[in-house]
What does this fold into?
Amino acid sequence: MKILILGGGGREHAIGKKLLEDYHLIQLYFYPGNGGTSIIGINIDNHHTVLDLGIFAKKNAIDITIVGSEIFLLEGVVDIFQNFGLKIIGPHYLAAKLEGNRIFAKSFMKKYGIRTPKYDIFYCYEKAIDFLKKKTNSIAIKTNGIASGKGVFLAHNQNEAENALKNIMIKKKFGKSGNQIIIEEFLQGKEVSIISIFNGKNIIPFLSAKDYKKVEDDEKGLNTGGMGAVVPNPYMTNSIWIDFKKNILEPTLEGLLIEKLTFFGFLYFGLIITSNKVYLLEYNTRIGDPEAQALFPLMKSNFLNIIQSIFKDKDKEISIDWKKLCSCCVVLSSRGYPEKYESGKIITGLNSLEEPFYIAGAKREREKWITSSGRVINIVGIGNSIQEARKKAYDKVKKIQFDNLYFRKDIGL
Ligand code: GLY
It folds into this structure.
């Protein structure tokens, strides 16, 4: 069996390790991959476009492709692979707009009565400024396109809001993704990530996860791709699960079926809990990173079987078994991330590190591990409680060293 995984972060390394754990006779390919994936599979290079990747997959008789990163989805990789008659896990281009186009996603939520914060859409700066002048509460300003995860601004006063608007709509700091914007009611609360698998008929949620998005402790500083994660999310109580299913998951499924936006892939619900109600902030059409690194070590079911069953028989019920444990993932990064940082630093302690851990931005050079990106390594602890998992993760963190190593100290607190 040959499986191609698209992406080069800790999430892709975690998917690959889980698949090999389930069935060791797989030949894994990664694009672009990283130093970790080069040990468990083959990193392919020189295949830059999604069309090139399709040709590679066809020529090499890849059985299944799993899309990790949204970049490929928004370039239409699924449509291209399907045209080649290849099996691929991920949404086609139109469904990927649920992640790639916020106005499309919000309109979908509104049409199907999915609970989401109130919002208004603006296509011109002057109208947006006029609207802002009447606002006294905190708001979120979002670019229509996802702008590499950088297009969301929280404004607590008029000045902050006007600055954000100028940067997006006048200075065009986020290019075309800021041609249209959403101004959304700001909800204070606890964020939850629910990642699920969609087989074109049902949406089956994974365990709940909590992502730590800001670069500094106490959720301060700039937004990042994620500095850590815990599973399960302690705020996702039984009553919130019921609320989520009724007001978000079920109407989402109804909308996907009616709009014919069905696909085989992952759907990630970015939620916020406030006053005992859960709201949908956004959809992603892939597994989260670093949520994947905290989720896969707890998955008891055979992930390969789940994926294969989707292609075999979409009427077959999918159930996923999980270990009754908790996990905590701490992201080790290069100081300065998500802005400027230095790479090329020698990493020590990795070769004797206890599993699970996942490589993100590190490569192998002449038997040495070298940093190569902002997020470098994901260290995971598993325990009977989040506190125990957290302790195990941070004990392992102490074993790793490199110049300019930076990590949050409050993951799982
Ligand atoms: N951790 C958030 C994301 O993957 O988008």
Residues 211, 226, 284, 288-289, 291 surround glycine (CB under 6 Å).
